[in-house]
Amino acid sequence: MPIARSRSERFDDLVLDAVDRLRPQWGKQLAAVEFAVEDVPPLDELGDGPGRIGTDPIPFGRADAAAGADPASVVVYRRPLEARARDRDTLGALVHDTVVEQVATLLGLSPETVDPGYDDRR
User: Fold this and answer.
1) Calpha distance 86→107 (Å, rounded)
2) Hey, is 120 helix, strand or coil?
3) Contact between residue 80 and residue 91 where contact means Cβ atoms under 8 Å apart
4) Which residue spans within 56-122 are E strands per DSSP?
5) Which helix (H) or strand (E) holds 103?
6) What is the pLDDT at residue 37?
7) Higher per-residue confidence, 47 vs 82
8) pTM of the full structure
9) Beta bridge partners of 34
10) How far apart are the first and last CA of the chain?
C-alpha cells in the first residue's frame, strides 16, 4: 500500500502542474526560473498600511527578477492559498492563477497573455 502524501507534498504537486501547463508556450522563458513553495510570506510582505502596494493584505506569491548570480524565481505561499480555497479544485485553480500572475510579472506581460483562460476564471 502506498504511503499517503502529505498536504504540503500535494500542494507542491499543484504548483508543478501549474508550471507544466505553462511550459508548452513559455518553456524557453521559464527554463532559468526557479519555482518554490513557502508556507507563509515573510513579515515584510504583510500588512495593509501606508506604502503597501496591492489590495490583498496577505500575498499568495511573489516574483523576483534575476539579480547577479541569483536566478529569477517564483515563490508560492501555501497557507494563504489553502485558507482561501474551499476544496481541492478551488485550490488548484488558485495555485494556477497565482503561478500565472507571478510569471506574468517576471515576463512583464499581463496574466491574460501568459494564460488566455486566466480572465475566464475571474
Assistant:
1) 30
2) helix
3) no
4) 61-64, 73-77
5) helix 88-107
6) 98
7) 82
8) 0.86
9) 73
10) 40
